[in-house]
Design goal:
Blueprint: H1 2-12, H2 17-89, E1 101-104, E2 109-117, E3 135-145, E4 153-165, E5 168-169, E6 184-186, E7 191-194, E8 199-200, E9 204-206, E10 209-212, H3 220-235, E11 248-250, H4 257-266, E12 271-273, E13 290-292, E14 299-301, H5 305-309, E15 312-313, E16 316-318, E17 329-333, E18 336-338, E19 342-345, E20 347-351, E21 357-359, E22 364-367, E23 381-382, E24 386-388, E25 392-394, E26 399-414, E27 422-436, H6 440-443, H7 447-460, H8 472-480, E28 488-491, E29 498-499, E30 509-510, E31 519-528
Parallel strand pairs: 6-9, 6-27, 7-10, 7-27, 8-28, 9-11, 11-12, 15-18, 16-19, 17-20, 18-21, 19-22, 20-24, 21-25, 22-26, 23-29, 24-26, 25-26, 26-27, 27-28
Antiparallel strand pairs: 1-2, 2-3, 3-4, 4-31, 5-30, 13-14
C-alpha cells in the first residue's frame, strides 16, 4: 500500500511526508548558501567602495596640494612684481607711471605690474588729500599655471601704495639768491615813475631812472617840506609813511641830483649804488603746456583761462586740484581782464602776442601756493603767483591783493585812480618797468594851491596854539583832504619762505645727488585674489 502511495505521489507530482521533509531540508541548505554568497558579495562591494574612496581621497589630497603649490607660486610671483616695480621706480631710467610691464619667474609663473597715480583712500575730505599726486598705487598680479593644463592657473593680486620721498628741487638760476631780499626789483634801464602816497616796505632795487611825483604840479619848497615831515613823523613814532623804507639800491649814475637829494637828505634813506646788469633775472618760460611733479610721474595739463572762462574773469574762484592740476598752473593766452570777485590760487603764466593782464575789479586776490615740503627740512618753497610776459596793470577802479612773487617782463603799473583806491602786494615784485601813477585828488591841485597851503602852514606853525599842525602832510590831509597814509603798499613776506623759479621742461622734484633715483615710502600693502 505504501509503495502504491509513493508511486501515486510520484505520478501525481506530490511527495510522501518523508520525501517532503527531505526536500525542505535541502531547500533550507540552499537558502543559507545564497545568503552567504550575498554577504560575501556585499562585503566585496564595500571593500571596493572603500578602496575607491581611499584612492579618490588620495587623488583629492594630491590635487589640493598641487593647487596650494600653484597658489603659493602665484603669491610669490605677485610679491616679486611689487619688488621689481619699486626697484624700477627708484632708478633714473624708470619709464614712468604710464608704462606697465610683465616678467616671467619660470616657465609656469609670471607677474603683470601696472601703476596708477594717486591713492583711492585719499578723498577730498581726507586731511592728506594734498598728498594724492605724490602717491602711486602699484598693482601686481601673479600667475601660476598647471604645466599639463596651461588654462588652469592660480592668481594672486597685491596692491602697494607708495609715496614720493621729496628730497630736492631744481636749483635756482644764477644770481637768484642776491635778489631774494628785495621787495621790489626793477631791472630795466627805463624811467621809473613813482607818485606818493605809496609805500615799499623793505629793500628796493631800482636800476632805471627814478622820477618822483612828476605827475603832480608841486613846487620845490612844498615837496621838500612834505618829505622832511614824513621822516620827522617817523622819528617821533607816528608811523613810517615814506615812499620807501629802504635801503634803496639804485643806479646813481642814472639819477638826477634832485632825486638823490630827496632820497638821501629829505627822506634820510640809505642808498646803495649799483651797476648791476639790467637783464631779467630769469627768462620767461614762453609756453607751459604741461608739467610734472617728478620724473616718470603723471603729466598735468595747464589749462588756458580764456578757453574755459573767456577773456574776462568775474565771480570766479580757482584753486589747485590734487587730481587734475595739483600746482594750480593756469595759462593766459593774449589779453586777460579780471573784474569783480575773482580769487585765483596758483600761478598765472601769460603768453601769446598780447600777453598782458588787466585788473579792473574789486575783491580780487591772486595767491601763490607753497610747494609740498621736502623731507628733513622745514624750509618752505613757493612758486610765483604770476609770470607776465607783457604788462600787469591795475586800474584805478580796482582793489586787489597779490600774495607771492610777481614777475613782469614789461611794465607793472598802478594806474591813476582815486585816493581811496587800494592795492596790496605781499611778497616780491620783479619787473622791467615800474610805474605808480598819481592819485586824482593830488593831481588836480595846481602849483598855486600847493604853495598857498604851504604858506598858510608856515604862518600858523610857530604859534603855540592847541590847533597848531606841526607837520605839512597832516596839514594837507586836514585842510585839503589829501591823505598821507598810503593805500598802495608793497611788502615782503617775512615768514622765511623762499621763492622758487621753476624750469617747466623739468619736473619739480628731483632725486638727491646721493641717490641713484627717486625714493619711495611704503604707505600700505593689501593682498587678494
Amino acid at each position: 500500500m505504501k509503495s502504491i502511495l509513493r508511486i501515486i505521489g510520484t505520478i501525481d507530482g506530490r511527495f510522501s511526508p518523508q520525501q517532503a521533509g527531505e526536500q525542505t531540508l535541502s531547500a533550507a541548505r540552499r537558502r543559507r548558501r545564497g545568503i552567504a554568497v550575498l554577504l560575501v558579495l556585499g562585503m566585496l562591494a564595500m571593500t571596493l567602495a572603500l578602496s575607491y574612496a581611499s584612492l579618490r581621497g588620495q587623488a583629492t589630497v594630491a590635487q589640493l596640494a598641487h593647487n596650494l603649490g600653484r597658489g603659493e607660486a602665484a603669491k610669490l610671483a605677485a610679491e616679486s612684481g611689487v619688488y621689481a616695480a619699486l626697484r624700477r621706480m627708484s632708478e633714473a631710467t624708470w619709464a614712468g607711471v604710464e608704462t606697465p610691464f610683465i616678467a616671467n619667474l619660470s616657465d609656469n609663473s609670471w607677474y603683470e605690474v601696472s601703476f596708477a597715480t594717486g591713492d583711492s583712500q585719499l578723498t577730498p575730505a581726507h586731511p592728506q588729500y594734498g598728498e594724492y599726486p605724490y602717491r602711486v598705487t602699484i598693482t601686481s598680479v601673479g600667475y601660476a599655471s598647471d604645466p599639463g593644463q596651461p588654462a588652469v592657473r592660480a592668481i594672486h593680486k597685491i596692491k602697494a601704495v607708495v609715496q614720493l620721498a621729496r628730497r630736492t628741487i631744481l636749483a635756482e638760476p644764477a644770481g637768484w639768491s642776491t635778489l631774494a631780499n628785495y621787495t621790489v626789483h626793477q631791472w630795466g634801464d627805463r624811467p621809473v615813475n613813482y607818485q606818493f602816497p605809496v609805500r615799499v616796505n623793505g629793500p628796493a632795487n631800482i636800476l632805471g631812472t627814478l622820477s618822483l611825483f612828476t605827475e603832480y604840479p608841486l613846487s620845490t619848497d612844498p615837496e621838500r617840506r612834505y618829505f622832511e615831515d614824513l621822516e620827522a613823523m617817523r622819528l617821533l613814532g607816528m608811523g613810517d609813511n615814506r615812499p620807501f623804507e629802504g635801503p634803496v639800491t639804485i643806479a646813481k649814475s642814472r639819477q638826477t641830483s634832485e632825486t638823490l637829494n630827496y632820497l638821501e637828505r629829505d627822506l634820510e634813506l640809505t642808498t646803495i649804488d649799483t651797476s648791476a646788469s639790467t637783464t631779467p633775472p630769469a627768462a620767461h618760460p614762453i609756453s607751459v603746456n604741461s608739467y610734472k611733479l617728478y620724473a616718470g610721474g603723471k603729466s598735468y595739463l595747464a589749462p588756458i583761462l580764456q578757453t574755459t572762462y573767456g577773456s574776462g574773469l568775474q565771480n570766479l574762484t580757482l584753486e589747485p586740484d590734487p587730481v587734475t592740476n595739483p600746482l594750480g598752473i593756469y595759462r593766459s593766452w593774449n589779453s586777460l581782464a579780471i573784474y569783480n570777485n575773482v580769487q585765483i590760487k596758483g600761478t598765472i603764466i601769460s603768453e601769446g602776442t598780447t600777453p598782458d593782464v588787466q585788473v579792473h575789479g574789486t575783491n580780487v586776490t591772486l595767491q601763490a601756493i607753497n610747494l609740498a615740503p621736502l623731507e628733513d627740512t622745514s624750509q618752505v618753497y613757493q612758486l610765483p603767483v604770476a609770470i607776465i610776459k607783457d604788462d600787469l596793470r591795475l586800474h584805478g577802479t580796482s582793489d586787489a591783493l597779490i600774495q607771492g612773487l610777481t614777475m613782469v617782463y614789461d611794465q607793472f603799473e598802478l594806474k591813476q585812480g582815486p585816493k581811496t583806491a587800494k592795492f596790496q602786494l605781499n611778497g616780491q615784485l620783479m619787473t622791467a618797468d615800474f610805474a605808480v601813477r598819481g592819485r586824482n585828488e593830488f593831481a588836480v591841485i595846481g602849483t598855486a594851491e600847493w604853495e598857498s597851503q604851504y604858506l598858510l602852514f608856515l604862518a600858523q606853525y610857530p604859534l603855540p596854539l592847541p590847533t597848531t599842525i606841526k607837520y605839512f602832510p597832516v596839514w594837507m590831509q586836514d585842510k585839503v583832504n589829501l591823505p598821507f597814509v598810503p593805500y598802495l603798499k608793497f611788502s615782503r613776506d617775512n615768514s622765511g619762505l623762499k621763492y622758487h623759479w621753476q624750469t617747466w621742461s623739468q619736473p619739480i622734484y628731483h632725486k638727491d645727488p646721493a641717490d641713484p633715483g627717486l625714493r619711495w615710502n611704503l604707505i600700505r600693502w593689501t593682498e587678494g585674489t
